[in-house]
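U., I forgot to send this yesterday:
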Amino acid sequence: MPKIKMCNGNSRSIKEGFEEFLLMCKVRNYSKYTIKYYENVIHNFELFYNLDNDIAEVTEFIVNKYLLFLKNKGIAGKTIKTYIGGLRTVFRFFMEKGWMETFIIKMPKFEKPIKNIYTKEELAILLKKPDLKKCGFTEYRNWVLVNYLVGTGQRLNSIINIKIKDIDLLNSVVFLRVTKNRKETILPLSSSLVDILKEYMKYRRGETSDYLFCNSTEEQMSRGCITCAIRNYNRARGIEKTSIHMFRHTFAYNYLMNGGDVFRLQKLMTHSDISTTKEYLNLSLEDLEKDFEVYNPLEQLVNKNNSIRMR
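Result:
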C-alpha cells in the first residue's frame, strides 16, 4: 500500500504552478512569443526534473544540478543563460506565492562570443538588385527585405507587423507598433532605403491597412515564411549564411564601425538595457588590428621622440 504523505493546503506540483504562471502571463498580456519562450524553458527543465514533483521540493541545489546538467550536454553558454533566466522568472513567481523557499538564482557567466555577421563581400552579393524585367515579385520583395534588414537592424517580429500606413516616406520614418519591449516607437529610414521603398510600393500597391511585406497573394507574411524566403534567397546567390537575426548583428556592428555611438544605437535597436547594446562592442582581431599602428601609444611616443640619439 502507498504511504500517506503529509501536505498542507499550499502544496502543488510544478506543473500546476506553471499553469498559474501562464495564466498570469496571459492576464498581463504577454506576447505569444514570450509565453512560448517560458513553455520552452519549462519543457527543457522537465528533461531533467519531473514536473509532478512538489514545488516546495525545488531548492538551490536542484537548480545548480540542472545548470551542470545543461553544461554536460554541451549546450552553448548563451542558450544556458536563456534557460536559467526564464526559469528564474518562473521560480520567482513561485517564491512570491509562498510555494517555494526563497533563494537567489544567480545567472551563470560564460565567455561572450563575437557575434557573427555578414561580410562586406556577402552583403555586396545580397544587395545586388535583380533584373526587374526578368524576376518575379517574390525575388524582388526579398531583395527589398534584405535592404530593409541591413538598413534598419529591426527585429523580425516588428517587420512583419509593419503596415503601409506605418511608413512615412516623405519624412523618412517608420512607425513600429510591435516591439519586444511593448513600446511603440518611431525610427528613421535612410535616404537609400526610402528610394527603394518608393519603388517597391509601385509594385506592392495595396491599401494603407495592408501589411508592407506580403506574400504573392498580398497576405501578411509569417515569421516562418520570411525566414524561409530569406534562406532561399541567400542560397540562390551562393551565401550559406541564412540567419535573419544576423542582419541585426550586421547593422549594429557596421553602425558602430562607421562612427555611430552606442547610445543612439540603443534607441535604434530598441534595447531596454544599454548593456545589451554594448555587446556589439566586442570586436574581432581584424577590427582591433585596423589602424593599430596609428593609434598605438608606443608608436606615437617613439615617432615623436625619434630625435633622441645615443652618443
